[in-house]
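Postdoc handover notes: sequence design on the structure in folder B. Input tokens:
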């Protein structure tokens, strides 16, 4: 029995030795350096652009309404019609106007008679003056009624809304809306940090979602002089020429302003990693053969690159591939592209 045990002991020792060698080889394998690719962070000239969103509006918007409720006799235009300044749009019921004209005619006759009597001493100057006042009031009333009976377009533009039909009684809503849509405008809210840089007449680029990447030219027409204390923004009106009427009120616009050119660090977009669960971004840089975790503040996306505002310096070697296997301090091996 003892002899059998003595024979088995060398075999067990050999097995144990082979097992240890296998574990040793496995340890060596797992400690291999992670292969990565890198690039050098460099300074480049970067256009300082800022984009703001807005809805397109008519340059001028007029709501066509009479001063007093009345029945609509006839509407002469329809939605989409182009009109010119002074064009007849709506005719209201003219009953009141006709009555006022009759009264005015009687007052004019009375005044003519009083004037003849005044010349021969039949009436006093005071009586003549009182009748003259009544005559002037009647003329003013008729002029007002005429203006509110025959409604004319105050601008050249396009009819964009109609709320009544012939025979309806006007109450609160405008009968028609006329908008000037050449040019149109976009009203944007700009961060107060740009207030010293925005100037009247400054050119801007405008993109409309409906037209994709097509760029329309605009300019700053009006800068409101105050800052909203809640949003810390100021209002800026952008004028957009629209000779072909392709830009319509209500379209969603993106207005891009250029605020000069500055030198910024630029890296490839593949180097930027967005931290899960937040909007924070970071990169890995290569320092003494190890990956170093660096939070960064990014600026504009420039095609396939990102502008870096802070976090790394020019000349830093930034890892662009292999980051998924890295932790802070991981040893790496740089491979050629």
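Designed sequence:
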């Amino acid at each position: 029995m003892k002899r059998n045990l003595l024979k088995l002991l060398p075999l067990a020792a050999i097995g144990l030795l082979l097992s240890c060698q296998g574990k040793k080889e496995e340890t060596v394998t797992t400690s291999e350096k992670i292969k990565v690719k890198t690039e050098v962070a460099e300074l480049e000239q970067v256009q300082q652009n800022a984009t703001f969103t807005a809805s397109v509006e008519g340059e001028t918007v007029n709501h066509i309404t009479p001063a007093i409720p009345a029945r609509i006799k006839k509407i002469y235009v329809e939605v989409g019609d182009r009109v010119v300044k002074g064009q007849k749009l709506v005719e209201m019921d003219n009953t009141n106007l006709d009555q006022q004209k009759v009264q005015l005619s009687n007052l004019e006759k009375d005044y003519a008679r009083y004037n003849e009597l005044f010349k021969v001493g039949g009436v006093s100057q005071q009586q003549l003056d009182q009748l003259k006042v009544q005559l002037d009031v009647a003329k003013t009333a008729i002029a007002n009624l005429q203006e509110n009976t025959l409604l004319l377009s105050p601008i050249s533009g396009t009819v964009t809304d109609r709320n009544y039909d012939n025979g309806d009684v006007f109450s609160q809503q405008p009968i028609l809306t006329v908008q000037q849509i050449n040019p149109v405008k976009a009203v944007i809210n700009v961060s107060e940090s740009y207030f010293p840089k925005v100037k009247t007449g400054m050119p801007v680029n405008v993109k409309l979602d409906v037209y994709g990447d097509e760029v329309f030219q605009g300019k700053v027409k009006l800068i409101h002089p105050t800052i909203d204390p809640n949003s810390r923004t100021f209002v800026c009106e952008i004028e957009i020429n629209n000779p072909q009427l392709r830009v319509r009120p209500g379209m969603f616009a993106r207005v891009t302003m250029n605020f000069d050119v500055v030198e910024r660090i630029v890296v490839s977009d593949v180097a930027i990693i967005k931290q899960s669960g937040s909007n924070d971004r970071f990169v890995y840089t290569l320092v003494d053969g190890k990956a170093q975790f660096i939070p960064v503040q990014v600026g504009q996306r420039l095609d396939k690159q990102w502008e870096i505002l802070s976090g790394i310096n020019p000349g830093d070697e930034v890892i662009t591939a292999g980051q998924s296997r890295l932790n802070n301090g991981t040893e790496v091996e740089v491979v050629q592209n």
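Context for whoever picks this up: Helices lie at 2-30, 95-119, 125-149. Don't rerun without checking with the PI first.
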